[in-house]
């Protein structure tokens, strides 16, 4: 592991532009469960019945039971050492942007200033009738689904399966993937497109792809140059410390 961390540090320090792509694993150490695998949200909730836009429109109260659970974890969560290390990498000039599938806002809270949120932000709500957006805080979830002043149903301002990612957001994410020369892929199973296609796009544009994950993924033997096995909260601070040693 130490040898791979040193290799990553060398590649990051030589890169003109490095970006990070993050997934649910990034926030596991902040107390937010991942979706797939043991303890994942999709073990208890079938995504077909809880996370598609059709399911939400059919039965919003039922979907909100899952969303309320996720929302409670999200409101309590604080950035973990992995988030803080990514923010420090940016501050030191070694990271241009973070492309995230997460909806928890923890990268911004940690201090990253260019965060591309592919799947929206769960701290906001959107009224399906009048289109107004609200902060989640202060909205009562006693009665589900929560309603807007206009009487419309409120939905978290996140991308459900069956919904399109905003074109401008996807354009920026793809641009970042095409123009980086190192991509850190942290805590994603790379099962959901279009996010899952970004490491391949980076690779085919000449970038190194470095995975940080406790487990192998579909990228490990195909797209990634190598996998640093471990959690984000464990590996990312080690990587930042090594960069500090190299640069001071
Ligand atoms: P997944 O739940 O599919 O994958 C989480 C990944 O994080 C797995 O590869 C784990 O091995 C890894 N992991 C677990 N703990 C970790 C830790 N402490 N540090 C680092 N890695 C860890 O989550 P995503 O790939 O983000 O979309 O899922 C992608 C999308 O599927 C989500 O954005 C969501 C979901 O359905 C929508 O709902 C549209």
Polypeptide structure, described:
The protein is α/β, with parallel strands linked by helices. Helices cover 39% and strands 17% of the residues. The chain has ten helices and nine strands. It has helices at residues 2-14, 41-44, 47-50, 53-58, 60-76, 81-91, 106-110, 167-179, 198-204, 232-247; strands at 18-22, 97-100, 115-117, 120-127, 133-135, 154-158, 182-186, 208-213, 226-229. The protein has a six-stranded parallel β-sheet with strand order 3-2-1-7-8-9, with helices on both faces. It has a three-stranded antiparallel β-sheet with strand order 5-4-6, with helices on one face. α1 (2-14) crosses α10 and α8 (167-179) packs parallel to α9 (198-204). It starts with a helix and ends with a helix. The model has no long low-confidence stretch (mean pLDDT 95). 2'-O-acetyl adenosine-5-diphosphoribose binds next to loops.
Shape: elongated
Helices, by number, come to 10
Low-confidence stretches: none
Oligomer: single chain
Instruction: Spell out the helices and strands N to C.
Output: HEHHHHHEHEEEEHEHEEH
End-to-end Cα distance: 23 Å
Give the names of the bound compounds: 2'-O-acetyl adenosine-5-diphosphoribose
- Strands of the biggest beta sheet: in what spatial order? 3-2-1-7-8-9
The assigned structural class equals alpha/beta
**What Rg, in angstroms, do the CA atoms define?**
18 Å
What is the average per-residue confidence, as pLDDT, rounded to a whole number? 95
